[in-house]
Amino acid sequence: MLSIRSVLGWQLSLRRSKWLPLQCLCYSSSAAAVEAERTVREGPRNDWTKPQIKSIYDSPVLDLLFHGAQVHRHAHNFREVQQCTLLSIKTGGCSEDCSYCPQSSRYDTGLKAQKLMNKDAVIQAAQKAKEAGSTRFCMGAAWRDTIGRKTNFNNIIEYVKEIREMGMEVCCTLGMLEKQQALELKKAGLTAYNHNLDTSREYYPNIITTRSYDERLETLKHVREAGINVCSGGIIGLGEAEEDRVGLLHTLATLPTHPESVPINALLAVKGTPLQDQKPVEVWEMVRMIATARIVMPKAMVRLSAGRVRFSIPEQALCFLAGANSIFTGEKLLTTPNNDFDADQLMFKILGLTPKAPSFSEDEKSASEAENCEEAVSSSVGNSSYSLVGLPPFSPSGNRFNTKIEKSMNKFSSSETVGSGSRFKAIWDSQSVETFCDLCIKEVELGHRPKTHFTKEGWDNLIKNFSKATGREYNKIQLKNRWDTLKMIGSCGEILLERKPA
Ligand code: SF4
Fold it and tell me: Which member of 98, 373, 440, 492 is catalytic?
């Protein structure tokens, strides 16, 4: 078996001999590899074409999974998974005809229509969710819209305020929203509004006829304009073609701003609905959707949503690896079954996942991150022999640090909390990665990685020597994250080396 040292050494010798650029360490030229590398280099973009997304989606599944994971690790803390609890606060009796939904009054599913839950019951459920580790509480009501439901809407505004005061993020899914209602929800403290597009524009009329695709997009516009985070995704397994899955992702990825959350649901066919005989979605279909969503919308929280209950822990692990970083917890997802709480706790433990803390004011957070980023960059510039010209251009203008907004957009480099809560970004350009690889190899050769981990002396040397070589004072967590990514690439190299000895 080849060691990581020999693999890294082999990769570097290839690079030095100009056989491979750094980015080609993945040994693949699939569309997933090419577009993931571009996403890492350039950041989120909104000019995707359908053929581009289709070619990512069609890449060999393990390659797609690998590159989804790469983008995921660049854009997020890969161990963090957000836990959201979804409660149906008004169940059944909906006038819409969504073919998958047991809450539609048009289908005989045995579901009894109920009135809006009272405040005590909702707050109690939110409290229970919080105690179970959930950081976002989502309230769903089976309505076409909230027009003409003034009393109920005002009650929901009160629920939002109270749950927000409990220190949780709050999300609602109440059907179509008017602009004024979105503004009122924002004022009450709503974090996000969920309104799924469900499927592609082309396939949509096969699933819903009572409201149009454009009406859905209009609601998303009102939500966005009110300053509420957008949560919008879709469902697979509705009988759609792969082109429709790509079409859904294309619509989401070409919105002026990507949704902050993208739920990917697998249909749970319910008896009595028109889709009751659909065959279950396979995990590979979920992996394709999740990894493609991750590559084309790198900053979004990609949510492994309905249908998760059918997947084992190893299958869910593949979904997290592909780029999912959010789940629904709780006994039910509106009206369909969900994973058991204890089973989720066990899964977190086995997979080494940690619950994501809530984040409240994106505006404030972005501004503060931008300031910290600016400090980190100027300190790097001041001490470094490297220029920032080699760093991935992030803004359309190419001048990454031109404005505060552009700075706040640069959430793409790995970011870790250091010291007493201060944050700065680790920025990895090809030159600093190469330097880091050289230093790692040196430490391995010095015997400072006797087994699978660097010794304390090894890490101390890496921190000191990396700072000396680049002027960038990264801490152990930041360097270790990069090392883990390189190890992942190294593992790929090992497999290929076994197949085709150099
Ligand atoms: S998905 Fe929502 S809008 Fe459609 S029928 Fe169900 S509750 Fe009504």
Answer: 98
Residue 44 inside a domain? The answer is: no
Find the residues whose C-beta lies inside 6 A of ligand 1.
Answer: 94, 96, 98, 101, 103-104, 142, 175
Atom nearest to 97 CA in ligand 1: 5
Per-residue model confidence as pLDDT tens digits over 477-490: 778 777 766 654 44
- Asked whether residue 477 is assigned to any structural domain, the reply reads yes
Per-residue pLDDT reduced to its tens digit, 96-115: 999 999 999 999 998 888 99
Atom of ligand 1 nearest to the CA of 102: 6
Instruction: Check whether residue 89 and residue 205 sit in a common domain.
Output: yes
The pTM of this model reads: 0.68
CA 214 to ligand 1 center in whole angstroms: 16
| Other Cβ atoms closer than 10 A to 200 | 21
User: Which residue owns the Cα nearest ligand 1 atom 2?
Assistant: 142
φ, ψ of residue 241 to 5 degrees: the values are -85, 170
Within this chain, do residues 323 and 374 fall inside the same structural domain, yes or no?
Answer: no
How many CB atoms are closer than 10 A to CB 398? 8
Asked if 328 and 399 sit in the same domain, the reply is: no
Phi, psi of 327, deg, nearest 5: -140, 160
Kindly state whether residues 278 and 386 are assigned to the same domain: no
**Same domain (yes/no): 304, 412:** no
Distance 163 CA to ligand 1 centre (A): 24
Q: How many separate domains does the chain show?
A: 2
394 alpha carbon – ligand 1 mean position (Å):
39
Cα 393 from chain centre = 22
- Residue at token pair 């090894």: 458
**pLDDT per position as a tens digit, 319-368:** 999 999 999 886 665 566 666 778 888 999 999 999 887 776 544 344 33
- Give 165's contacts (C-beta < 8 A, 6+ positions apart): 189
Determine the number of helices (DSSP H) and then strands (DSSP E) in the chain: 17, 14
In tens, the pLDDT along 168-200 reads 999 999 999 999 999 999 999 999 999 999 999
- pLDDT beyond 50 at 10: no
Question: What SS3 class is residue 348?
Answer: helix
